[in-house]
Amino acid sequence: MGPYIADFYCHKARLVIEVDEKYHQTEVQQHFDQSRDRLMSEMGISVLRFSDIEIFEQMTRVIETIVNHLKRTSAVL
Predict the structure, then answer these.
(1) Rounded distance, CA 51 to CA 34, Å?
(2) Do 43 and 37 touch, CB atoms closer than 8 A?
(3) How far apart are CA 34 and CA 8, in angstroms?
């Protein structure tokens, strides 16, 4: 994705899903992530970010969030 590598990308839905570890909580990394998300948005790509803890402990909610996003954007389903 431009100069970046996405964790997960669905071309049909134009959706990037990022799994953020603890270091994404630092101010420097948050600034970097915001710049990256802006570039993706300019490319017409949505970005959903989840913490690694959410992935491990709240997978049902993560899936619901993704499905709801896809429904809102009429992407795929």
Answers:
(1) 15
(2) no
(3) 17
Closest listed residue to residue 69, CA positions, set 51, 48, 40? 48
Q: What is the domain partition of the chain in residue ranges?
A: 8-73
How many CA within 13 A on the CB side of residue 73?
17
Q: Are 46 and 16 in contact (CB under 8 A)?
A: yes
Give me 23's structure tokens.
């270091």
| Average pLDDT score, the chain | 86
- 20-45 pLDDT per residue, tens: 877 667 777 677 778 888 899 999 99
Structure tokens belonging to residue 55? 């992935």
